[in-house]
Sequence to fold (322 residues):
Amino acid sequence: MTTPAAAGDFMSLRIDRKTELAEDIYLFELTRPDNAPLPSFEAGAHVTVITPCGARRNYSLCNDPTDDSRYQLGIKAERGGRGASVSMVEQAAEGDVLPVANPENTFSLVDADEYIFIAGGIGITPIICMVRTLLARGMGNFHLYYLTRGPELTAFREELSSADLAGRVTVHHDGGDPDNMYDFWPLFEKPGKAHVYCCGPRPLMEEIRGVSGHWSQDRIHFEDFASDVMALREDDRAFVVRHADTGETVEVPADATILETLRRAGHELPSSCESGTCGTCRTELVSGEADHRDMVLEAHQRESHIMICVSRARGDELVLRW
Ligand code: FES
Fold:
C-alpha cells in the first residue's frame, strides 16, 4: 500500500535500452546510473514512473525477477489516452533518467497446482513475467491465452513460440472486432482448480468476470494498468463529493478522478493500481448513486463502498467518508 509519493521517494533510473517489441510497443530497460542492484520484486509487481509529461503511471515489471540489475517495462503508446504512455514512447530516450518508485505487487503469483493466464494487448507484461518465473522453477502447469488485434501488435512473439512453451500458449487475433473475441466459456464452464490471472483491457476483464462467476472468486485475479484510457470517459461530467463527518465539499471535474481531486485538495490517500483492480483505495460510500467502474467490489459491497481511483457519481453528489 502506498500513499502519494513525494519526489524523494523515487529512485533515479537511467533508460539503458529502448527497443521496439511490436507496433507502438516498446521495451524499456532501466538501471541505476551507478549500476548498483535494484530493490527486489516478484512476478506480478509493478513500479510507478513519473513519465516525461509529468504524469505518474504504473507499469508492470516483465523481466526475470532474479535479475536485480535492471527493470524491464513494456509500454504501449495509448493514442486515445491522456498522454503519459505516448510521452514515454515518443519522448523518453536511451540515456534519460526517470523517477521510479520501489516495486509493489497487487497481482502476486500464489502457489497453485495449475494456472490459467489470460492477457489482452499490453496486459501481457505481468503475465510474461509469471510465465518466465514458472519456467525458471521448472514448472509447466499453466496455459497462456494471449489476445491481440493482430500479429503486428503482439509482443514477445518469438519467445512465446519457443520450444519451451510448445503446447502452453494460445495466441488469438480478433482484428479489433469484439464479435471475434476468443470464446472462454468452454474453459470456464466447469469450475476448475486453477488460479486465473487476467490482465488486459476492460472488456476482456469483464468477459472473464462474467464467465467465471461460478468459480471460487479467490482464484480469479485481475490487473489493469491501462489508466491512460480507462479511468475517464468522454461523457464524464463534474460532480461534488462531500465528507460525511466534516461536511467538506470538493468538486470533481469531468477530467479527473475522485482520488486525484481529493489529493489536489490536500488529502493523503492510499492507492496502488489506480485502475480499480487492487482494492487499496476502497472508500466508504454513505449516500448518493455511484457509477462503479472497478473490478473489486461485489454487488452487495457496492451499496456501502466505492473505489475512488476509477468510479464516479451518477448524480450531482456523493457523500463519502475518506
Ligand atoms: S488504487 Fe487499486 S482499486 Fe483503486
Observations:
- Confidence is low (pLDDT under 50) at residues 1-8.
- DSSP finds seven helices and 19 strands in the chain.
- Residues 124-136 form the longest helix (13 residues).
- Residues 271-274, 276-281, 294, 296, 307, 309 surround FE2/S2 (inorganic) cluster (CB under 6 Å).
